[in-house]
Amino acid sequence: MWIMIQAPTxxxxxxxxxxxxxVLVLREVxxxxxxxxxxxxxxxxxxxNRPTVHRILRCLVEERLVEQRxxxxxxxxxxxxxxxxxxxxxxxxxxxxxxxxxxxLARKLPKMTAISALRSxxxxxxxxxxxxxxxxxxxxxxGQRIGLLSRASGVAIVAALPVQEARALQARxxxxxxxxxxxxxxxxxxxxxxxxxxxxxxxxxxxxxRGVHVLSMAFGPQGAPVGSVSIVGWESTWPADAVPVLxxxxxxxxxxxxxxxxxx
Length: 264
Prior knowledge:
The chain has 264 residues and is an alpha+beta fold. The protein has helices spanning 17-31, 39-46, 50-62, 79-86, 92-108, 152-159, 163-176, 182-198, 242-260; strands at residues 66-68, 75-77, 113-120, 123-130, 145-147, 201-203, 212-219, 227-234. Residues 16-79 form the HTH iclR-type domain.
């Protein structure tokens, strides 16, 4: 199941370097969605030389895993990734349960956005969203792939990991997500500590995004979170007593999804 992908190991294993590099390139292409990458940017991001990345991309384009947009020559995910995804046994019933749970939560909070993201290694992918937009910085698009420490949805997942696993992930993320800035990552790591103690992550105005408040909670087996569910709202719609008002609704949703998830 794709949401249970383990974090990448440090260093290439003998005989698999070419495959690992191709997967790295493919994963980074997925991170940019419809924006895409130009060759030089992608090579720098992957910390590989330009000719190597060009060779990998040429092969991926031939196999339709990546495509190059004619208008600006930027690289995006290709149609074969979608076609292969249709064949993966990804527990469609569970994904449908997530979507329905998010919709139910949003109906109870008409001025706020409810979202859910599932873990994929050091990243998470938004699989459900309902309600009005509450700032594109925090309310993810369905299908969007992001680093766990880049949004509250991911921070809540990291906070639910065992301490040593979370620390290792944070160490990898400091380099991989360096473009977010040291201040952002420092705040995210502090929220991980607080979230571990509380059992949820609460980001108020100025914590990570100006004017946007987020309440997030992980769900899944103890110590092995599958994903998170979040409530997102503008400061003007956020209740003064947010935790006692919103937390029971969030916990009810997270507990229901935990009960429905059966690991393979």
